[in-house]
Specification:
It is a single chain. This protein is of the alpha+beta class. The chain is built from two helices and six strands. A six-stranded antiparallel β-sheet has the order 1-2-3-4-6-5, with helices on one face. β2 and β3 form a beta hairpin. α1 packs across α2. It is globular. The mean pLDDT is about 85.
Length: about 120
Amino acid sequence: MVTDSITDGKRIAQLLASEITGLQTGGLGAVSVSEADPDAMPSDTGTLAYRVLDEETELAAVYLYPAYVELQFAVPRPPEQTADRGNLVEADNETVQVTTGADVKGAVDLIRETVEQRNSA
């Protein structure tokens, strides 16, 4: 049984980037990580780590904090999208915090659903 969880902002951002680039199916085929800064360090005010793109359109910017990652969406998301997504924290309709490595899958689902909504409009 695993008792440790990943709660380091930089590591959570790395996991999220790996998931985004590794899952090129189910609405994520054209999604990529852009402007990644491998030297970015978490800060109390947030440090830009990378941007998430759908083809050429920015979906979100990913910011590093010491204990979490914040996704600041640049496009509209489906309402009430964070329900049943583990410990994701929705600050407002544009900002979602990912507080553990286990919640990365939920964040990827948010990105996928945002892409699918955008492409169906």
